[in-house]
Amino acid sequence: MRKSDPLAGLDAVEWTRLRHAYGTAGNVPGLLRALMSPDENKRENARSALHDNVCHQGCRYEAAAPTVPFLLAIAADRSMPDRAELLQLVSELAVGWADEHLPLGVDIKGWRRELARMHAADPRKEQRGARDEGLVFDDFQESLHETTVALAAYDAVRAGLPTVHSLLSDPDSSVRATAAYLLGWFPEEAAASTPPLRALWNVETVPAVTVNAIISLGLLSDGGLIDRMRDQLTGDEPLARYGAAIALIRMGVTDAAVIAELATACTRPPEADGPGFLGWDLRAYASESLGMLGGAAPAEAVDSVLDGLSRSSDFGVCPVAAAALRLTFGAPPRPSLPPLDQLTPLQRRTVRTLASLPETTWHILDFRELLEAWGVSGDRDTCRRYAGLA
Question: pTM of whole model > 0.85?
């Protein structure tokens, strides 16, 4: 039997009529062909360029959706290299920056509803309303276009999910792990995706694959597995326990065992590698999941998040800080904080933990803006004085 060409139909696409981050998409066919090169450097450069062109900084462009079928076809060909990396690129084409959708997963109903509202809206009223609220809203049509092409890319990946299902039995564990991860972003396809994910969990022996399957099942709200996930909490494999706790709290199960496992992950997260949710920042994901409890979280869980915050660094500090602030101060936005002695003990500890973070953390703009949303000063010296630190 003659082997099929993953790039069949590539030249039938009018790439020069499509746009990406740097202009016309006429270079995309060459980049896709380079992904199949025997030269590793050439493949890596093409993959990086393709990512920057069609999914620049999480924003998808017109060329994104037509690119998806070819990426999936290459990833499905076992003779091709770098297949897990290509699936990871496919996931970014689907959802952009994945951290924006966690811990609850993709709100696809809200996404589609908002796009329908934008299509029906009067652009002049939208821009006037934005100005009245003091927002920057330069071009409603541009925003509408960006939302439209992003959802088109998501739906292009959705249409290719049967291929992703087939990759759950791939001999390459990295491909299986990425395929399991990718399926969790598509709640509308839960009925089709949960059976193969369950089957994978039944036979999988690689923890990094198992945990992705479990978390995706939680994001797809597979409530029929709650008892099995509870049983997993007592197992010997740390990653599987962690995944079960993440999945259970996503489905509204807040047993003491679930909270205890997540609290442990905040302070001593298990080790993991390969493709995974939040880039395997397990502390951040556990903290955000506990943050969903708000004021209902037990004090020991809040203590664990604060302990994890004190151990966080670089950009990984932001989700943990957000969880700590949500647990101790409630939802943002918040007004400026009252005098320190009017705060609760946990609130005082939160502010002091934030103020004690290294100076390099305070150089991160996202971190400073996060604090200001909760009424905490984004200036390190001001925050330290408020907290009573030298």
Answer: yes
